[in-house]
Structure formats: C-alpha cells, structure tokens
Amino acid sequence: SNISSTMMGSTAETALMSRRASPKTAHEQMMLGCFYSAGIIGLLIVYGLLQERIMTIPYPDSGGGNLELFKYSVFLIFLNRLFAVIFALCMAKRNGEELRNMAPLWKYLVVSAANVFASSCQYEALKHVAFVVQMLGKSFKMLPVMLWSLVLTRKTYRTQ
Question: Is the dihedral of CA 23, 29, 31, 36 positive or negative?
C-alpha cells in the first residue's frame, strides 16, 4: 500500500538495506576485499600513467608551432579536487551523511594546503623523473617516518 511504502521506503530501498545488513561469509568478504583491492590498484596505475603522459608529452603551443610541456599542474590538481568534492558530496547524500564540519575549519585548511602543495610537487617531479621512480620514492618515505618515531616516541616495530 501507499502508506506502508512511504513509511518503510521503496521495495528496492528495503532490499538494499537488507542486503547491506546481511552478514557475509569469510570467503565472500575475502573475495570482495580482493576485488576492491585490485580495483584500487588498477585505477591508481591508470591514474599514474595518465598523469605521467600529461606531464611528459610535449603539446603544441597556442600558435600551433612550438612543442612545450604542460605548464599548469595546479590546474590538474584543481580538476582532481573538484571531481573528488563532487564525488564525496554524491556519496554523502547517497549514504544520508551530514555535511556539517565536525572539526574546526582551520584544521581542514592545513591538511588541504599540505595536500595541494605535495600534489603540485608530485606533478612537477614528473617533468624530471619517471613515474616508477617517483612511486618508489613515495614508498620509501615510510622508513624515515618509522625511524623518526623510534627516536621521538621510542616506539618499537616487530617483524611478524
């Protein structure tokens, strides 16, 4: 009836909610984890290859004569962040999440500024080193962080 569908939501919505709430077997969880992990890694590879291609292939200038590298990496970062904001807003709306800030705005500003600055450096570095070298360098940053935490907090790390 109309009243029950209004109170309970649509049939598709009810089915979606029950599917989300149903517990999955360990095998299903493992398969989903593998699927999502492969998706993330695959998309990061595509993203990296496109990023390198944009920054290392010369393009004709506005006059159509000379070839030059892409100059405005900040514009690419702006487009990336704009898409991320639109996607996040869509996901928040879909999941019924509140859009109000929980932390003070200045904390978001500090993290955002550091992220944009790091991304700018990452794009500019692609003009000088290959993407693979850049990824190896980014992966290596964990070691100095661990060493620094050993010195400052006396934290210990175990091998398993």
Answer: positive
Can you give the length of the chain in residues? 160
Contacts of 157 (CB under 8 A, 6+ apart): 146, 150
- Would the pTM of this model clear 0.70, i.e. be above it? no
List, for residues 14-44, the tens digit of each pLDDT value: 545 555 556 688 899 999 999 999 999 999 8
The two structure tokens encoding residue 11? 């049939």
**Cα dihedral sign, 137-141-142-144:** positive
- List b or e across 68-92, with b for residues whose CB sees 16 or more CB atoms inside 10 angstroms: eebeebeebbeeeeeeeeeeeeeee
Query: For 6-40, b where at least 16 C-beta lie within 10 A, e where not — what string?
Result: eeeeeeeeeeeeeeeeeeeeeeeeeeeeeeeeeee
Distance CA 36, CA 23 (A): 18
Q: pLDDT tens-digit profile of 55-79?
A: 888 888 777 778 888 888 888 889 9
